[in-house]
What we know:
The chain has one domain: Metal-dependent hydrolases (TIM Barrel, Alpha-Beta Barrel). Helices cover 34% and strands 14% of the residues. Helix 1 packs across helix 2. The radius of gyration is 17 Å and the shape is globular.
Amino acid sequence: MLQSTVIDxxxxxxxxxxxxxxxxxxSVALARAAxxxxxxxxxxxxxxxxxxxxxxxxxxxxxxxxxxRLATEELALDVRSGAEIALGxxxxxxxxxxxxxxxxxxxxxxxxxxxxxxxxxxxPVVQGLHTRxxxxxxxxxxxxxxxxxxxxxxxxxxxxxxxxxITAGALVxxxxxxxxxxxxxxIRAGMAHSVASDAxxxxxxxxxxxxxxxxxxxxxxxxxxxxEVPAAILAGTEIPPRPEASSAIGVSGHRAWWRRGRSxxxxxxxx
Length: 271
């Protein structure tokens, strides 16, 4: 059971600007479902992509609309600004706009892991953003075919300061068994740093993290993944050390599974 303030760093809760809820009523229903599941802080992360080329003004306008409605509904949920940025869209964003897309106004950008089999070269992109003072959180790397083919590439990014955010539903097989296995391998190897809902609506892509973590046998890491690390990301402070959890998830012997030549095929299911 989660003991601290639960923070969902990745949720498509804003109305009418991406593939999340189409209406404010749908956004309120999603927010209420998240609050009922114990979430106290929710970061709105609409897509910023070729399909959904959202800009800060549009995102903040939708955010204020949702905040006002939640206040009317007397729903105690702290909704903060953010975005899920596609790599190919970074060149279309003005330098002055990029800080306004960070998670909760801090230094961290949420980048969407690529869904194609080869993937663009992430290293120079990350290095350029780091040089400009940004920190990088990668969304759902467990669904990235390029990382399935070459997990060592993800390890290199993590060693250079990138953090990763696993989608809670992946831990219980909602995206397929292979993706579930890869997500758990990343956690065992210490290459996962947070768990988020990546919710899009109340029913088909619902919020929720605690139940999924419990089903996956990750209770001993739950607070770190959904409370402690997310809080540090939003505050821009040092990431807390990961608690010892080897007895709970079988870390021993799994840190370099890819060095044994193992790779996985993965579907290209998006969002």
